[in-house]
Amino acid sequence: MIRYQRLGYLALNVRDIGRSQAFYRDHVGLQSVGGRSADVRYLRCSDKHHDIALYRGAPGLKRAGFQLESERELAPLRRALEAAGTPVTDIPAGDCAAMHHGPGLRTWEPVSGATLDFYAAMEPSDAPPFVPTVAKIQRLGHFVLRTADAAATARWFTEVLNFRISDQIDGAVTFMRCFPNPLHHSFGVGNGKGKNGLHHFNFMVSDADDIGTSLWRLKKLEVPVVNGPGRHLPSGSMFLYYLDPDGLTVEYSFGMEEFPEQGARAPRVLPPVSKSFDIWEGPVDPRKSAVGAIEQSRPGVHA
Fold first, then answer.
1. How far apart are CA 61 and CA 241, in angstroms?
2. Do domains 4-119 and 137-293 have the same CATH topology?
């Protein structure tokens, strides 16, 4: 049984690395890490080396990294992937070094081709401790993909990777946690209606006031707010969605249901109505989640 610690990091593709670094530092509230590089910039909201890595490319997801409970999990993970017929390889040493973590495994979600890395430990940052600035960010929370066959993606995550379903909105989205991490979801997959893409990614904040104050702060900065404030029925989280300079959708959320390792409640299947997404039923800007390519690096597959 494969066991995880958390969603470890997201590597994002952006058009202008310097512009995006400034946005995530000054307007989202992350801390820049390390020196300037033409290839990658790192930002953090934890004691790890980084939580976000920025690369130059078509705006969207380059890859995601999940941190395992220990290196002992690598062997059963490899066996599970091989048994499922999913390509798996060791993460190249250069990528491990660039991401500041130890050896691990790389695979590709079968429907979308999203690159997923799994490793046991990331170097701690030698920078000063992370101190929240414009928002009281606790952690990188989750990301959500939309895929051409969301049901198949959900089955792969649960049957092969040992993720657990927390809730579903029927025919629309499945929320999963990387077991035994207690958070309601560290990953979700939505109905892409025949297309694949990055839907959004999330930072969890520690104060409900962050949701309200961020609304007005971002509006004053002319950052597009595309959904919220609102409250999700599945997780109970208060939320606010806004766009980065490339149109990628970023979420702040406050509060989330947590699940015990043993005796967790059964997942619910909620009706596909507006209240299932947002109890407050606020408006949704059509720009929400409109941008978000998935970089293709699967062997034999080209973007």
1. 17
2. yes
Collapsing DSSP to helix, strand or coil, 292 comes out as coil
Angle at 181 between CA 106 and CA 66, to 5 degrees: 15
Judged on CB neighbours under 10 Å (0-12, 13-18, 19+), 224 is middle
Percent of the chain that is helix, strand, coil (3-state, to 5): 20, 40, 45
- Beta strands 115-119 and 104-108 are antiparallel
Give yes or no for residue 37 having a pLDDT over 70: no
Could you tell me the residue ranges of all domains in the chain? 4-119, 137-293
Q: Going by C-beta distance under 8 Å and a sequence separation of 6 or more, which residues neighbour residue 219?
A: 225
Q: How far is CA 292 from CA 49, 83, 111, in A?
A: 25, 31, 16
Confidence of residue 301 (pLDDT cuts 50, 70, 90): low
Nearest alpha carbon to residue 229 among 241, 218, 220, 217:
241
pTM of the model: 0.96
How much is the pLDDT for 197?
A: 99
Calculate mean pLDDT across residues 11-27: 98
Q: Does domain 137-293 have CATH number 3.10.180.10?
A: yes
Residue 5 three-state SS:
strand
Question: What's residue 302's pLDDT?
Answer: 54
DSSP designation for 267 = P
End-to-end, the C-alpha distance of the chain in Å comes to 33
4-119, what's its fold?
2,3-Dihydroxybiphenyl 1,2-Dioxygenase; domain 1 (3.10.180)
Beta strand pairing call for 137-147 and 197-205: antiparallel
Spatial contact of 239 and 229, defined as CB atoms under 8 Å apart = yes
Q: Tell me which H or E stretch contains 159.
A: helix 150-159
Give the DSSP H/E element, type plus range, for residue 31.
Answer: strand 31-33
